[in-house]
Specification:
about 280 residues; mainly beta; five-stranded mixed β-sheet; three-stranded antiparallel β-sheet; 3 helices; 18 strands
Length: about 280
Amino acid sequence: MNLNNIKKNQIVEGYLHFSDSNQQADLVVPYLGYYEDMTNEDVLDRDANDKEDPDIAGNYFTNEDGYVRGGADEYSMDQLSDENQQQVTKLYESGRVAFSPNYDSTSDIVKPFAFLKQNIKDLKVEILNDKGEVIRIVADAHDVAKSFHSDEDNETSSSTKDEKYEWDGKIYNKKTGEMEVAPDGQYTYRFVATLYNKGEHQVQTHDTPIIIDTTKPVIDKIAYNKQTNTISGTYHDTGAGFTDYSYGTVTINDKTFGFKLNDGNQNNFDNSDKIRAIL
């Protein structure tokens, strides 16, 4: 068997064929190996919105209703209902992944969809505060199976679809001895994967910034211009802010029109033609 042409960090696979001298029996044995250090492979897939195509399906987060976090609120995301799920997952903006654990049954948790390229000995989920300190361990799972794609169902399994990897926004309060909702602010959701194979990168991490935002956007003022028969206004948000897919609506005389909240980052709306037609 000649393996002279293989390169480092490459899978080596094939079959060994054994025959006895009397040609009475044949035995074929498959083999699979890896040349060099198998821990050099990034075991966690890239993020779905990465410029480079992910190797499997791309990692992302959703709320409890399956809406991708970092894209927009679920009502705005409904405007993209004609897009398939694979396309929608690529629309989220890094640094805008947010949820609001205020028990209103809307985006109270974040659910990770992460895809693993290898079987994992140990997969831990840590929550870090804005100082980089671990403030909670959400999960510590053992013998986690790698992700795979089913051609029959045209679906790809996520190794972290189980609810034990979800974060409900709570952390432990040492003073009260109770689990309490963390204050609004910036956090980090970290995967810590320990591989079966020993090597330089046997322990690998993957970080995603997460924002807790329970404060609603605010409309500062609305003005009506009698001369032009139009309405305009300004608004702002102190939390995660708006994405390119965040939409607001104004309803007048039972007529509704929408506008992009992040249009030009002007934080105002003035769809004069549409409003004038309604008024």
